[in-house]
Amino acid sequence: MRKIIIFIAFVLSISTYAQQVGKVEIKKQSGFGLKKFNEAPKKVFIQDFFINYQIIFDQIEIAKGGREFGGGVRGDAKAQLVLAVKGVSEQDLQDITDKLYKEYVAKLKAKGFEIVTSKDVQENDIFKDWILLDGGTPVKSQFPGYVTTAPTGFQFLTKKISKKGKLKKKSIFDNGMGTSKSLGGIIVARVNMVVPFIKDVESMASSALTKSFGGVAKIVVKPELSIIQNTSVKTTGAFGPKVILLNTSSVFAYKESLKNQASLITIPKKKIVINEVFEIKKYKAIKSAGQDLWGSSYGAVKVFSVNDAIIKKMQAVPCESQIYKKGVLDAGSQYLDKSLSQFLSNIN
Is the overall model pTM greater than 0.85, yes or no? Predict the structure, then answer.
């Protein structure tokens, strides 16, 4: 009887764990000449393996005031909401990345592929003057609010490092084909994943209503851990603010000639939601600006007096590290496994 109870408990724990991650589906963002991968040397150069974990959400909403219908003036309103993940360490994030990379490499090796490292190709002309770096140390300077990780024991090349510690790895127009050709037709693989923890729950109708009245700044979000196709972050550039796009993708590129070339890019078909990590609740920051309906008359001049308003909320979003790690590991493993399967299905 005791054995039956233990078995039932085990099955229930597996079922609960499996239900933590929503349906994982992938789709081809682009691909061509897939059977040509068979013409490539049985070598894979893993150029990128980066996972970006959002640990801080920081959003500012500004509602501009001004003259209103019916008379009067309303000031500007500014709301800022800052949320931070509590309970997960940088080492936890590094552990997830290390395990996913280990699984990824093991599956390629099991199919007979030799892994080519950045150190192996560092002397190639295409990487002239590039810098060789070691993974294993989480970086918070790459993208605001995110911790960027590369696997322990993994080395990668970067064009340069800014004074603020940001890395410039390659051109946004580089699809891996040129790199493969320069390396003699070695297959180039790149993995990037984005793991945010916040979802915007402000409805379009509510947003429109808020903006129509003016002077009301409103932010409404709730925690939702997931792996998503893409998101954008605002940062500062040499010429002022700029927007950077972060994406989740698995890339395989091969080129020896116009005749022998192939490319495959797979992405999540939709958001991969990881449930049961955070408490389901809304976080809000709402502020209304001051308003002067009548003003003060000074002869022919009427002066309106309003104060701009600002509210800033900083809150912790707690979770248990083991639940967070298991969820991201399962979701990431399923995504990478399906992406690898899509690639390997073209290999004889």
Answer: no
